[in-house]
Write a structure and sequence with these properties.
With 139 residues, the protein is of the alpha+beta class. It has a single domain, classed as Cytidine Deaminase, domain 2, CATH 3.40.140. Helices cover 32% and strands 20% of the residues. The protein has a five-stranded mixed beta sheet. A hairpin with a 4-residue loop joins strand 1 and strand 2. The chain is globular. The N and C termini lie far apart (42 Å).
């Protein structure tokens, strides 16, 4: 799957966003190592804390289907600017590897590519937790 095809899928699912409060639609398309694509849009809640971002929606769908390895995620919001994953999404995605390719796009042909590690340097990873548990405590 090309980056452009992944971006197109993100734009398609963006239209399903439920955003009665922010009116800011976001779509994400996550490419698993298996070749399957999982899409997600943001879903808002009046309680705000119950809101879920597009990136995590796509990831949770993939995990619920048994996927654990990913190649890339395309994220789209308002075509006037690049929409990046929020901090929580970056941290949750980090759970599955630092080399995930993150594509932020304004259009199918206007996009930027980063690794997750570039977007969340010095992150807390499962390896950090394992190291802390092996030392008998946390820092």
């Amino acid at each position: 799957m090309t980056r452009e095809e992944l971006i197109k899928k993100a734009f398609e699912v963006r239209e399903n966003a439920y955003v009665p409060y922010s009116h800011f639609k976001v779509g994400a398309a996550l490419l698993a190592a298996s070749g399957r694509v999982y899409t997600g849009c943001n879903v808002e809640s009046a309680s705000y804390g119950g809101t879920n971002c597009a990136e995590r929606t796509a990831l949770f769908k993939a995990v619920s289907e048994g996927e654990r390895e990913y190649k890339a995620i395309a994220v789209v919001g308002d075509p006037a600017t690049y929409t990046f994953p929020c901090g929580i999404c970056r941290q949750v995605l980090m759970e599955f590897g630092t080399d995930l390719e993150v594509i932020v796009a304004r259009t199918e042909n206007d996009y930027k590519v980063f690794t997750l590690d570039e977007l969340l340097p010095h992150s807390f990873t499962p390896q950090d937790l394992e190291a802390a548990n092996n030392k008998g405590g946390s820092s």
